Amino acid sequence: MKKILTGIKPTWNGMHIWNYLGAFKPFLELAEGKEAYIFIADYHSLTSVHEAETLKKNKLRLLKEYFALLPHDTKITVFEQSKVNRINDITWILSSVTPLSLMLRWHSFKDSKNKNSDINMAVFNYPLLMTSDIISYDIDIVPIWKDQIQHMEFARDIAWNFNNTYGELFKLPDYHVDKNLQTIPWTDGRKMSKSYDNFIWIFDDEKTLKKKIMSIVTWSETLEEPKDPKKCNVFALIKLFASSEKQKEIAKKYKAGNYGYGHAKLELLEIILEYFKEARARYYSFENDMSYIEKKLSEWNKIANKLADEKYEKMMKMVGL
Ligand code: TRP
Predict the structure, then answer these.
(1) 206-275, which class in CATH?
(2) Is the distance from the beta carbon of residue 142 to the nearest atom of ligand 1 less than 6 Å?
(3) Residue 6 CA, ligand 1 centroid: distance in Å
């Protein structure tokens, strides 16, 4: 069975609809019929988060979100990068077959070097650790955004370098870029982005969710006028979450007139609440009790450790240690 993996850094502000549709849901779809892994790239967060409490808080939130969105009987293995004992040992050995010239070609590194004059070494080594994250577990495919293509090429190069130096050990991972979901309109019709503050968090309380949805930018026809659903930001979102019958029904109301954008917004709120009903209930249950998550993580961290341990032992033999 093919193996698929993705990693998420706990540096962000939470799971919003864009993350869900652009990353989480496509991952679940690609994971069908494969052996799937999702890990929390908490070591990677250390490149930018240097406050222990913030890191802890972000990681906890991310775990609750992921466990809330995954079905209870999920076959996906969720684990913590920093609990994989050999991950940095593997990274060290890989670094010894990685030419500096390859590292210097890494464009994000060059970007961040231009932005801040003194970056930390973890930023420099970021793609090496990301390589270990993938090749330690013999992953076949990694779904990514366009911005991660170079990292994936890098991972393939490094795996190849090791194999070329010591003999076949690592699988060269493929990647899959999802082009469909790069642009999802949000409250003001622009691309969703934290800097525009135009996204919503799936696990917001109902009041906040409602406020965000009511603030979606719309045209200014009168209530009576017929409206074109195709031109409407609210309808664009309805389309992402409603059944096709429901979409047709709402489109009809738009065109008939006497249906205001306020009505459409309230329908959208209901649709989103319904769509995420179970996940939201699960999320809130984790607020009071983390025992399920802790139990699963300790089980699943062992699976990742077993794979990485095996890889590490083989590597050590091959390098002569
Ligand atoms: N670099 C990824 C990001 O910025 C996170 C990540 C770390 C990752 N290791 C990975 C993703 C391995 C996929 C596979 O989002």
Answers:
(1) mainly alpha
(2) yes
(3) 7
